[in-house]
C-alpha cells in the first residue's frame, strides 16, 4: 500500500512537490521518495539545533545520541559551512536531502536538518537558498516557488511503506552486516 502525502501543494502550506527519487539504504533496501520543497519550520527533527530533545519527535526513530558533544560539534561545523550539494540529490538514505515520513517527522537526516535549521537561525543560509533557486527546475519546482517560502529546504518524503524505526536504523548503518541494538 502506497502512502500518499496529502498536504495542499501551495506556498500557504509551505510545500511544493518535486520529482520522484528511488533511494537505497546501506543494507540495499530500495525505497521510493518524492522531493518536496518545504519550510524548514514544518519539519520535525529529533533535536533542536542546540541539541535539546524535541518532545514532538518519536525518539524510537533516532538511533543516535544527538545531544553528544561530538554530534553538536558536527552540527555547528556543518551549519557554519553549508554544502548545498550534500543536501540535495542522492541515491543513498544517509546522504542528500533528509528523508521524512508523510507526517514530516525526520526518519533519516536529523543532523543535516539540525545544521540547516541552525544556519537559518544564524542568518547564514543564503548560499543554500541561492543553490535551491539555481537547482529548482532540476528538482521539479520553479524558482518562484523557492522564493515563496521563507526558509526553504529540500526533503525526500518516503512513499514506500516500511517499519519506520527499522528504516531509521538501516538508513545509517555503514555496513550491511551492521547490527543495531
The string of secondary-structure elements, in order, is EEHEEHHHEH
Structural category: alpha+beta
Helix % is 25-40%
What's the number of structural domains?
1
Strand content: 15-25%
Spatial extent as radius of gyration: 15 Å
Number of strands: 5
Number of helices: 5
Strand order of the largest sheet: 1-2-5-3-4
Could you characterize what this model shows?
The protein is an alpha+beta fold and 181 residues long. The chain has one domain. 29% of the residues lie in helices and 18% in strands. Strands 1-2-5-3-4 form a five-stranded mixed sheet. A hairpin with a 5-residue loop joins strand 1 (15-24) and strand 2 (30-39). Helix 1 crosses helix 2. The longest helix is centred in the last third of the chain and has 14 residues, at 126-139.
Write a compact overview of the structure shown.
The protein has 181 residues and is of the alpha+beta class.
How is this fold's topology laid out?
Blueprint lengths: L14 E10 L5 E10 L29 H12 L18 E2 L5 E3 L1 H13 L3 H14 L3 H5 L4 E7 L5 H9 L9
Helix pairs in contact: 1-2
Task: Please supply descriptive tags for the structure shown above.
181 residues, alpha+beta, disordered C terminus
